[in-house]
Amino acid sequence: MRNLFVILRQEIFSLLISPATFIAGFYFLLVMGLMFWFYLGSYHLSTGRMPPIFELAFGLFIMTPTIIPFLTMRSLAEERRTGTLETLLATPTPTYAIVVGKWGAAYLYYLSLCGLALGFPAVTHYFFEDKVGELRFMDLTFLFGGGLYLMVSGAAFVAIGIFASSLTRSQLVAGMLTFTLLLIQLSLIYYFHENQPAAPTSMLGETIHQSLGAFFRGYDHLREFSRGIIDTRPIVYYLTSAALFLGFATLVTEHRSGE
Amino acid sequence: MVNEDFLIEVDQLTKTFGRKKAVDCISFQIRKGEVVGFLGPNGAGKSTTMRILCGLLTGTSGRMSVCGIPMAQYSHEVKKYIGYMPENNPLPLDLRVYEYLRFRGKLKGLEGARLKKRVDLVLELCDLHRSAEQRIIGNLSKGYRQRVGIAEALVAEPKLVVMDEPTIGLDPHQVIIIRDLIEKLRGEVTFFISSHVLSEIENSCDRALILNHGRIVAEGTLTELRENFAPEISFEVKAKGDPREISAQIQKLDSNIEKTDEGAVDKAGFRWFSFRSAKAKDIMERTAALLVRNSRTSLGEIRETHPDLEEIFIRATQRSWEIETPLGAIEEDAGDESGKGQMKPKAKSKRARSKKKRNVRRKTS
Question: What pLDDT sits at residue B187?
Answer without folding.
Answer: 85
